[in-house]
Amino acid sequence: MKTTAVYFSPTGNTKKSVDAMARALDADYQAVDLTVAQGEDGQEFSVQMQFSGEDFVIFGMPVYGGRLPALAAKRLSGLYGEQTPCVLVVTYGNRHYDDALVELQDLCEAQGFVVKGAAALVGRHTYGEIQMDRPDTADLEADAAFVRKAVSGDGLHAPIPGNRPYQKQPMEKGQFAPLTSNACTGCGLCRKSCPAGAIGPDFQVDADRCISCFRCIRICPAGAKNMDTEGYRSF
């Protein structure tokens, strides 16, 4: 059995949990990162993969406003299974995951995957200083134990929580677009790492494309990306 970890993880929380699960099954697991899927020209490209019944796939996505990020859901469309067993993971900042997990189930089953287990995991919230140390060591150990149990089991024993139809609209664009201060050195890391391709040649963020993942804030070596606005502070 070959294990593959598939994730969309702008700030790394989802990746940590999915990686812990994949390592528990296969030290040589394959990682498929859907976080950044644009070429140097800024154009979106599709990741195309076909899995067999001998594979095992772990899908990981964050929860944005009770749904999967629309951009992330779209990037799953090129991955196909043939009755391929999988585990589903969504990560959220300790409010609620709402319909995100059942949405991921619907997407994966439509692509030919068979769900063996599903987990909603707490991680650091994108906004503010909430659950700053999550996932911690105990979380990751629990993740590994869960996936071992799932892979050896006979499938789901209870319906995945969620509503059909989903109760909220998917988040096409974010509520907050980071600012860029004069501390910017023009290194370009934010631009090439933006999941939405929302950062232009001047390193300013396009609010119409930004999904408010705050990846640029987390990775900027100069601390130039920020949300120093009254609207964000009062959120």
TrEMBL record:
GO molecular function terms listed in the Swiss-Prot or TrEMBL record: 4 iron, 4 sulfur cluster binding; FMN binding; metal ion binding; oxidoreductase activity, acting on NAD(P)H
Flavodoxin-like domain ranges (all copies): 3-151
Domain 4Fe-4S ferredoxin-type: 175-199, 201-230
Co-factor(s): [4Fe-4S] cluster
Alphabetical keyword list: 4Fe-4S, Iron, Iron-sulfur, Metal-binding
Database matches in InterPro entries: 4Fe4S_Fe-S-bd, 4Fe4S_Fe_S_CS, Flavodoxin/NO_synth, Flavoprotein-like_sf, PSI_iron-sulfur_center
Function field: Ferredoxins are iron-sulfur proteins that transfer electrons in a wide variety of metabolic reactions.
Protein name as annotated: Ferredoxin
